[in-house]
Amino acid sequence: MAIRYTRDHEYVSVEGDTGTVGITEYAQTQLGDVVFVELPAVGRTLSKGDEAAVVESVKAASEVFCPVSGEVVSVNTELEEAPGTVNEDPAGRGWFLKVKLSDPSELDGLMSEAQYAEYLGTVG
Amino acid sequence: MKLAGLGARDSLRLEAGLPLYGHDINQETSPVEAGLAWSIGRRRRETGGFPGAIRILSEIADGPIRRRVGILPEGRMPVREGADILDEAGELVGKVTSGGFGPSVGGPVAMGYVVAEFAKPGTVLGLSVRDRVVPGRVVRMPFVPHHYHR
Q1: For an interface test with A, which of B10, B14, B76 has the most A Cβ atoms less than 10 Å from its Cβ?
Q2: Which residues on chain B are in Cβ contact (under 8 Å) with A35?
């Protein structure tokens, strides 16, 4: 399983041809208490960079962009009732959506864990 | 006293129903439509002659065209500044001037201006957020009872 990161602080965790998309620990810290998450419809086809979801904290509404292209195969409906899960466990139970990758080569353009850690050093 | 961030201050004043200058009131707002007519003293009402008196006194007498109201959006989605307010037919009747998640209320709260006939508490309105319309209900403010000294 490989995890790749975007400069907008989304992650995609890949298993086989499915990528699980969410926001990083850094992103949830920056947002503060998450109070609402709007998720895409299952079956929707997203292109890399499309708005995939909206995450709202007490402070602001922010778009979550899809790091990879593909069809949405499932969304984390648990977030409707418990949006705070994004704060508690962004890399785990706080995932947003799963996409069936249509072009796995797009992953090469994203950052590895080490590269993302280095990137965070430059934005912090 | 303790330090508090701007986000905390904003959600607290919103839940208290207090208008924020530059958002809920500005140089074009009359105190009457903003629900602040209590700030016009009796002597001024009787003698007039102060800046804005013509408009303010006529609004006190005949009612303003629009009024500032509190709105409780249904569900959990925050409705923020700039959202259109629609009547049941989908016609534009106002705009949200501030809104967000009220931690004490435990859900979204909003404040905005609507055409006066839609300002009655209990009126159901549509709130346009991104590509959908969520229902909301006009309510009396404050959303949370005041505990501060006036």
Answers
A1: B76
A2: 76, 78, 101, 108
Q: What is the pLDDT of residues A1-35, one digit of tens each?
A: 699 999 999 999 999 999 999 999 999 999 999 99
- Domains annotated for chain B, with CATH where assigned, are 1-150 (2.40.30.110)
Is the distance from CB of B102 to CB of B109 less than 8 angstroms? yes
The answer, yes or no, to whether ipTM is higher than 0.90 is: no
Per domain, the residue ranges of chain A are: 2-103
Residue whose entry in the numeric block shows the structure tokens 């958002």: B23
Q: What is the Rg, in whole angstroms, of the alpha carbon atoms belonging to chain B? A: 16
What distance in Å separates the CA atoms of residue B15 and residue B111, rounded to the nearest whole number? 9
Which string of DSSP letters, residue by residue, matches chain A?
-EEEE-TTSEEEEEETTEEEEEE-HHHHHHH-SEEEEE-PPTT-EE-TTSEEEEEEESS-EEEEE-SS-EEEEEE-THHHH-TTHHHH-TTTTT--EEEEES-GGGGGGSBPHHHHHHHHHHH-
Architecture of the domain delimited by A2-103: Beta Barrel (2.40)
Q: Do A36 and B7 touch (CB under 8 A)?
A: no
CB contact A80 to B (< 8 Å): yes
Task: Please indicate if any CB of chain B lies within 8 Å of the CB of A2.
Answer: no
Q: What is the pTM of this model?
A: 0.88
